[in-house]
Amino acid sequence: MKDFHELLRVRRSTRKYTDEEISAEDVKTIMEAALMAPSSKRSLSWEFVLVEEKETLERLATCKEHGSKLVAGAKLAIVVLGDPMKSDVWIEDASIATTIIQLQAEELGLGSCWVQVRNRFSDSGESAEDYVRELLNIPLPMQVLAIVALGHKAEEKAPFDTEKAAWEKVHIGQW
Ligand SMILES: Cc1cc2nc3c(=O)[nH]c(=O)nc-3n(C[C@H](O)[C@H](O)[C@H](O)COP(=O)(O)O)c2cc1C
Q1: What tens digit of pLDDT does each residue of 78-104 get?
Q2: Considering Cα of 33, then 18, then 157, then 112, what sign does the dihedral take?
Q3: Which residue of 2, 42, 71, 131 is most buried, as measured by CB atoms within 10 A?
Q4: Residue range 57-80, pLDDT digits in tens
Q5: Nearest CA to ligand 1 atom 3
Q6: How far is CA 47 from the centre of its chain?
Q7: 90 pocket-lining for ligand 1 (C-beta < 6 Å)
Q8: Looking at residue 121, what DSSP letter applies?
Q9: For residue 6, is it within any domain?
Q10: Taking the model in full, what pTM does it have?
Q11: 135 domain-assigned
Q12: Which of 116, 144, 147, 164 to mutate to test the pocket of ligand 1 (most atoms within 8 A of CB)?
């Protein structure tokens, strides 16, 4: 168990993964964490599709033009969905769950990367969301927010340099 502040410092987007499988126990811990995520009015507006099959991971990796190829090398993809009929703030709910998934993965020593799907497009101009919906049989009105790619880390990244924290973003009292 890492100190929480240290966990935030060392979490970096990992886009290269080893061949080692993620244990069933780790997957359970990650999903348990996601299911503890806060949601507006406790709407539980999110749902998750877990993908481990290599061929499906490779297909997910082509859902958009940029920034999704890394999914092909992941051991697990968690596709994060939200239901706009359950909450008008499903994007916030689903984003919090996605963040929690990444932090729980880091705490377990795993690497992860958020791959944006909502509002993104494939090479041919097809909506990435429609592509993922069709591939995984996701019914309407569920919306696809993102894919979290996960695996054991095959790259080392420097922790966040707190000397470079963007303190100019913080306004005291008023803008
Ligand atoms: C909303 C959101 C969408 C992102 N989409 C992608 C993506 O599609 N592909 C990708 O490789 N990384 C994606 N990222 C990861 C960011 O590029 C990364 O978090 C940022 O560059 C900071 O690097 P770090 O996570 O290593 O601190 C996304 C992150 C967020 C929060």
Answers
A1: 999 999 999 999 999 999 999 999 999
A2: negative
A3: 71
A4: 999 999 999 999 999 999 999 999
A5: 116
A6: 13
A7: no
A8: B
A9: no
A10: 0.97
A11: yes
A12: 116
